[in-house]
Amino acid sequence: MEKNNYNITPESFEFVQLNSNIHDVKLDSKPVSYLKDAMRRFAKNKGSVVAACIILLLILIAIFAPIISPYQLTDRDRVYSNKPPMIASLANSGFWDGCYNIKSQNETDYIKYNAIYTETGYNPIAKVNKTYVSQTVNGEVTLRDLHLNTYYSEGVEFQTITLDEYKAIQEYQNENNVQILVPYVMPGDLVPNSQGTFADSQTLWNGDGGANYWYKVDKNGKPILKNGQLIPAYKKTPNPDLYTKGSQAWLNAYLESTQFPEYNSKRIASDPYDSTKKNTGYVYGTYKGDSVHVRVIYYNYYIYKVGHEPQFWFGTEQYGRCIMEVVGRGARFSLLLALCVSVINLTLGALYGAIEGYYGGAIDMTMERISDILSGVPLMIVVTLFNLHLAGKTGVVPAFILAFVATGWIGMASLVRKQFYRFKGQEYILAARTLGASDWRLMFKHIFPNSLGTIITSCVLVIPGVIGSETMLTYLNIVNLESSNTASIGALMQQGQACMTTTPHVIVFPAIFISLLMICFNLFGNGLRDAFNPSLRGSED
Amino acid sequence: MFKYALKRILLMLFTFFVIMLICFVLIKALPVPLPQGSEAQKQQIMAMRELRGYNKPVMEQFFIYWYRVFRYGDFGMGEQYLVATYVAEEFMERLPATMLLNLYSIIFSIPIGIMLGIYAALRKNKWQDHVISTGVMIFISVPSFIYAFIIQYIFYSKLGLLPQIMESPSLHGWFSWPMFKSMIMPIMSLSFGVIAGFTRVTRAELTEVLTSEFMLLARTKGLTKSQSIFRHALRNCAVVIVPSIMGEFIGIMSGSLVIESIFSVPGVGALYVNSVTALDYNYFMMLNAFYTFVGLLAGIVVDISYGFIDPRIRMGGKK
Predict the structure, then answer these.
(1) What tens digit of pLDDT does each residue of A390-412 get?
(2) ipTM, interface predicted TM-score of the complex
(3) Nearest chain A Cα distance for residue B115, angstroms
(4) pTM score > 0.90 for this model?
(5) How far is CA B179 from CA A211, B172, B174, B185, in A?
(6) Chain A contacts of B200, Cβ < 8 Å?
(7) Which of A46, A130, A472, B295 has the fewest CB atoms within 10 Å, i.e. is most exposed?
């Protein structure tokens, strides 16, 4: 075999590097922490980012809507109930004009709305959508589909006020040159031949919108026309000079004519049948006990009473409360409740789960049984029982929170327990234990922070669950928050559902709000969960 | 497996017993309201109370309660709501409406849900998948009563196609067209959530199974794509889907309180809500027992059916 001579001299070697060191080059890029990485991956998930923005917007609405709204929860208005949304500056949009379309209005209805216009100066008919002739048993009938301004169509209302208020209104009328009080109409004057038909006119007069009759009608409410014009039925001040002085009739007339001598207000709407005369001869109110019964133009009366025009951005519900206020308050309550519950659940569940998971064995067994039993009770039963027991003592809201917490922490506890089982056997825990760390320190300094991401995420996912259950329970009226000066979206929706066919706006706003809130919280929570899950790292790229 | 099932059932009965004890004690701790109704009814109720030992200690009452339940099927009498009626009889009268409604709903929604899920999984990350996933997200998040409102508004208020509330079964009988027609809206409202749930589970399971190695093996040994999906992928998905179908079937008894309230279903939900608002504790106690039992039963049926379906879990149990 040929002998190779491998004679390598030290000179044939040369150093790879002489001037630089061989240890690790300093990393140019910055280290990315777990939190930062999660945030970066969260930001990549566009849906979740949008959801987070919408949540922020909804929270802002919940905070600011009750502040912006000029109304309080206690502001109820019997007349302006179930009114559609109205914003004067956006009235041309077709949505915020406070109008509803109503169908098949006959001639009587049409005249009624025009009469309201004559009496109040506000035209309730925004638009006549369609005029058509329909065949009925009584022959041909002209019907109209109207676009009706429901704020104006209330027209005139009866009000019972004190004499002082009556004088104050007159003063206000003279100062501001608006008319609130309109001439009074007695039921007997409404239908001609009052003796025979008084009962009929009384029912018309007392009926819904009865104050709007200022013209003579037959007993069905159909107007009687003279030369195509309505005949006013205003009560005129009787003239005592027409009667024999000293007789009972004279006395009655005298008393009635001097009943309100202070009245010096002017009538602004022109007299429908005699425009030359200023009708100072009309009676503007009658005594009803110690107070005065008057007919008021409700729109102006409202401005007088409240100080601004009736404008409800989201409309009103059946008690005449501003829906924006109710939704805002309800949302505040829902969000605060959900936040409260999830924080308490987190604390309780983390403690319980940590003890279970860390110690294991018999302690774990016993505690698991207890939480098993509690988790078997359906939520609505827990809420009902807490409501029955505690609502009287602590108030509805604390009882409600406690009910949610009573079984809500179990989910969190089992999550934390799982995390503890996962981490407690790892070497770094062993190392810490060897160094003499106490149990408490191991649990909350070494294990707990590792599972924090998962726990926070499920905390976020608890929120929509709580809001959903809260809405459901208040919808069903199992829990009634009316007494505790808060509103609830569920109760509002329950009201809205009853009148969904006629006034759908009552249910639309709370339903949209709650749906958006639920969708966004779920999207946001899912995005957060994916971002905090290290095993998904890189899989999306 | 049998041992495991027996253990679970015994444990469930124990849990049920403890929960009932807690509920019973809590209800008895509330002030006892005076009975309503006519003089004769009041006397009847007072006699019933005497029979059930209202003046005895609570624990004794508890045992009398359950003794009477098992011996005579007697859950007591309505004292505030549906005065002087037997709770159990009223309940049995209401149960069919709830069950039928939910049965229809799951019969329609489970196949739809599973099919949508399969379709989405097969078209993963294509536009069909995105559409379905977005829909699922929306329908899972939005509470069911909101789409109940939408359905009611469209089909009743606007189109006037369907009756607003459910018919009474005494009019036409359970299985008649007017009856079914009046049930369409509640069925639809109940179904969306179930469909979305099943679509999500199926899609998640199937996308996971489709990427596993045995699927690749199945394709390499010459199966077509559909063969491999039906014979291998779907069977593996069934491990998760079938137990949740079982749970769904048990859950049909409890139904949905809100949907029943919106559509005035003469079912168990209305009984619960009304008895709670009227503070009728006998009805309340029985319905507590019912809802708790159904909930626990659904849980254990799901767990046990895992074992029956998946041989790996069954074998694991033997070790």
Answers:
(1) 888 888 888 889 999 998 899 88
(2) 0.87
(3) 24
(4) no
(5) 45, 7, 6, 12
(6) none
(7) A46
